[in-house]
Amino acid sequence: MVNVKLKKLVFAFAASLALFSTTALAEEGPDQQQILKELADRAAGSQAILDAIQSGASPEEVQEMLDGLDPVDYAELGLSAPGGDRDASMAGSMGILTRPDSGSLAEEFARLQMELAQSSKDNAGSYMKEIQRLQSEQKQAGNFLNRARQLQKQAETTRKGAPMPEDMKYYLDTNKLSYPKGGAGQLYSADQWKTVANSLDGFITKMGTEVQKLMVNVQNSVGDYNSYTQGASSSLQSYTKGQSLFSEQGGGVGTTPIATSVILGVLIGMFIMWGIMKKKSRGDKTEERS
Known about the structure:
By secondary structure, the chain is mainly alpha-helical. It has eight helices and two strands. A two-stranded antiparallel ribbon has the order 1-2.
């Protein structure tokens, strides 16, 4: 995964070098500010999720906020969809530099950032699904735990053993949980029911620990989404500022100053991506050690 991202990073850098030979220009489109606003809204939405996680929001609350985070709509953002026609001009939607042999640098880099952002959001969604599965499993195990404790009290009160229900036995066997084994119709004493209850309680605790780890993964993925989205915005803003500062009389703009401003934006975005991948690399090494 990291190697794929590094290849994309190299592609973005190579595209930035090619920009210096660009001669074709596009007029500033009226939708530029709207596109930047859409990116800013996405960044703000992901930051709100990060703040909620930091504040101890429940998985249900985080899931609801994640569902409300709009998916990447390339048409809405004025970008070609991945794998689409990259030769198309952006003049009508983003007003950024175009090259006759490929899409503009700003388009390519923004698309790259948003593809990575969408991938991060998808990862967060996958982690949330696993959290939901574990929570459902915790609930079922909790029901069996309550029944085991009730049977434990019954055995203590009557001073007679109580048989284990078949569905409980099946659940314990399916999840490979330890409990006192016996023949059909065996009566379990209060101490034996305590052993069953402890086994179920430990299983629930283990799943709770897994949920916490997955929430950390969700937080990291949403953080990546936030960084990639801001990187795409920085790239486009750098071009817009360059256009504004270096525009010539009559509406034309000079290629070299704009190229310089876009390159700065690209480098900033690449630095953000490098930081994210370095953090992930350290996390992978830590997991391998553990």
